Amino acid sequence: MRLTITPLDPSMHNRRAFSCGSSSIDTYFHEVAAQASKQLHAQTYVLTDTDDHSALRTVLGFYTLTPHEYRDEEMDSTTARALKLKNLRRIPAILLGQLGVTVDWQHRRLGPMLLEHAFRKALFASCCVGGALLVTDPIDDAARSFYRRFEFQELAGGSRLYLAMKTLAKLYPDVVAAAKSSVA
User: Could you tell me the domains of the chain?
Assistant: First the structure.
């Protein structure tokens, strides 16, 4: 088995067979992900087995990234000061909108694999166009605990979690270097 993460391609990836146990995440993946990617509203990445030679590859997991922003007044002043984001008016961010692993493959470290890939993609995008934060909205306490294991912090006054891009830049200097040296 050789696992790979690539952008969602409806002509290659079997979306219908995917089920992670959360109806909202499953519905998004089945009904919205391909259209959102096609319209450039969001980008979905899927984890598949490259040894799967069926007409449509089985999707073992996926995540979605999309641009996002905060207004200065939406972020509590303590967090804004700590992140040096005060008085920006609009704070650029990337939203990790969805992340799911199919039920049969849960608890096999695929979630962390997808999350690391998301970290690297979000950081690369932030280096190219700006983005101070990676944010997510956990769907339940289990998801919140998962993200907290990876240093996500709570934004005051809500259920949203964030991770500063500065933190990711320290973890992945190779991504920063690649983004700075890339040409379109």
Answer: 3-179 (3.40.630.30)
Phi, psi dihedrals of residue 24, rounded to the nearest 5°: -70, -40
CA distance 34 to 161: 25
In order of 15, 70, 105, 150, 163, the CA distances from 147 in angstroms are 25, 20, 18, 5, 10
Q: Are 133 and 165 a contacting pair, CB within 8 Å?
A: yes
- List per-block mean pLDDT (blocks of 10 residues) for the chain, which spans 184 residues: 95 95 97 96 96 90 95 75 76 95 95 98 96 95 96 85 96 96 75
How far from the centroid of its chain's Cα atoms is residue 101's Cα?
A: 13
Residue 179 CB-density burial (10 A; 0-12 exposed, 13-18 middle, 19+ buried): middle
DSSP string, 66-113: EEEEEEGGGS-HHHHHHTT-TT-SEEEEEEEEEEEE-GGGTTSSHHHH
Sequence-distant (6+) residues with CB within 8 A of 142 are: none
pTM for the full predicted model: 0.92
* Residue 164 host element (H or E): strand 161-164
